[in-house]
Amino acid sequence: MPQDPDFELYDNVGRDADKIVAARYGIATRSDLLRWAKRDSEAFLAQHPLPDKPLPSPDLAPPTWPRSPRRRPLPRSAPSPSIFWMPPNPHSGR
């Protein structure tokens, strides 16, 4: 009876630490996971092919439209509202 190559037992020849730990604890090795991911992705990539040419890069130039007045930076002398915010006192009874 042929065995599934994903679950065949590892022999002692050419075993590395990953295979030894996987055989001891019954878990998949890194190469098993990569092989299974490649196998499982083939059907998905057949239905959803990657684009032939790269996607256009975003425009990194600064915007050309004027900013709204409230979005302009405040002068350094203007205090920030976060400086004056105080958390509520839990002992005030409110």
Output the keywords.
94 residues, elongated
Q: What is the ordering of alpha helices and beta strands?
A: HHH
User: What Rg do the Cα atoms give?
Assistant: 30 Å
Beta content: under 5%
Residue share in helix: 25-40%
Largest sheet: none
Overall geometry:
elongated
- Number of beta-strand segments: 0
End-to-end Cα distance, whole Å, is 77 Å
State the helix count.
Answer: 3
User: Which segments are poorly predicted (pLDDT under 50) over 5 or more consecutive residues?
Assistant: none
Structural class comes to: mainly alpha
Rounded mean pLDDT is 76
What can you tell me about this protein's structure?
The chain starts with 16 loop residues before the first helix and ends in a 10-residue tail after the last helix. 33% of the residues lie in helices and 0% in strands. With 94 residues, the protein is mainly α. It is built from 3 helices and no strands. The chain is elongated. It has helices spanning 17-25, 30-47, 81-84.
Secondary structure elements and their pairing?
Elements: H1 17-25, H2 30-47, H3 81-84
Tell me briefly what this model is.
The protein is mainly alpha-helical and 94 residues long. Helix content is 33%, strand content 0%.
